[in-house]
Hints:
The complex is a heterodimer.
Chain A: H1 2-14, H2 17-30, H3 32-35, E1 40-47, E2 50-52, E3 55-58, E4 64-70, E5 76-80, E6 85-89, E7 94-99, E8 105-111, E9 119-124
Parallel strand pairs in A: 1-4, 3-9
Antiparallel strand pairs in A: 1-2, 4-7, 5-6, 5-8, 8-9
Chain B: H1 2-29, H2 34-63, H3 65-89, H4 98-128, H5 131-161, H6 163-191, H7 213-222, H8 230-257
Helix pairs in contact in B: 1-4, 1-5, 1-6, 1-7, 2-3, 2-4, 3-4, 3-6, 5-6, 6-7, 6-8
Amino acid sequence: MNLDCNRKTKFLSRANSQFSILFILLSLCLFPQIASAKRLVIEIEIKNHFFVPDKIKIPADSKVKLVVHNRDSSSEEFESYELNREKLIMGGRKANIFIGPLSPGEYPFFGEFNQKTAQGRIIVE
Amino acid sequence: MLDAVIIVLRETLEASLLVSFLFVYSNHFKVHKKWMSLALAPGIASAFLVAFNLPNISDLFDGTGQEVLFVAVLLSLSLLIQWVNLIAMLSGNLNVGPPLLKMLFSSIIILAISLEGAEIIIFFQSSMANENNFYPNLLGSILGLGIGVSVGAASYYILDQLSKAGLAICSFLLVMVSAGMASQAVSYLMQADLLNSGYPIWDTGSLIDERSVVGQLLYALMGYEATPSFVQVIVYFSYIGIPLSIFFYLKYSSSRGG
Lengths: 125, 258
């Protein structure tokens, strides 16, 4: 352990500190998997052009993976202006959409191809 | 029906405005506008190819294939537009042959039609599944397409009439369109978790709603987003600042050299 620590400090002192800070920031940006190990997964279904459930509660300030299963035979586009998200989900397929971190509030989403029925809300608490 | 008008209009508007700006450039460089008719068929063919393969494309890269494809197309498009624009801005200093310009113009239109067309095709496929919606959606789509093409045509004639000023407005709008595409690409990277998503740095939604007509038009013209994230804003303004710096650098160094 001690040896390992020594090696680390040596490396840091040798390397330009500005460069290492930049490197850490970049790696946090480019490899989100490292930045957040555990992640909430929420499953949503599209059935007869309705979202089930149509109200989803998620905690504030955390990244969430939405898995949207399209049970209809026709395609749908998951869209939300508030979340800045837009994804085509083919009939009978599923799609992953990552959202957050978000501040508390309500974030509506809808199915662009069937807006009359396909409406939902993400409630961030 | 109204939904169909808006869906198709949104997709058509971006492509048709792009065509109108490139037509203005064609006139300026005295390039025959035949490149458009040559780009149309491969563009539409490629849109069908994307639309029919999107189910499988979407499953690639751990379910992020759709985002990866859209990011690749958007970034290529935005860089090609910047390239054309730089040529146009420096046209006094550079000697560009029409073949290169024709190739750039065609590539931009093929990519734009592939992306926007694929979405229209998928929407259409989806509405065919429901017989009650089919005819209203068909009518709406034709209306949306018609309005989109008309706006593009109007923009072309107005900009062409303005000659020198029209050319300046054209290159300004193209920079904005390209910046908007890059910012949209960043948003797709965040959606796929290939880039960390941040909190929006401002919210202009109460000022200009993204859903409003003005909001939609601004989205097509400059990638307007009411709640952009920090990285999006940085990328957006780099896309405006970097070509401007290159332009002034080249202009300054060439005027000193000559």
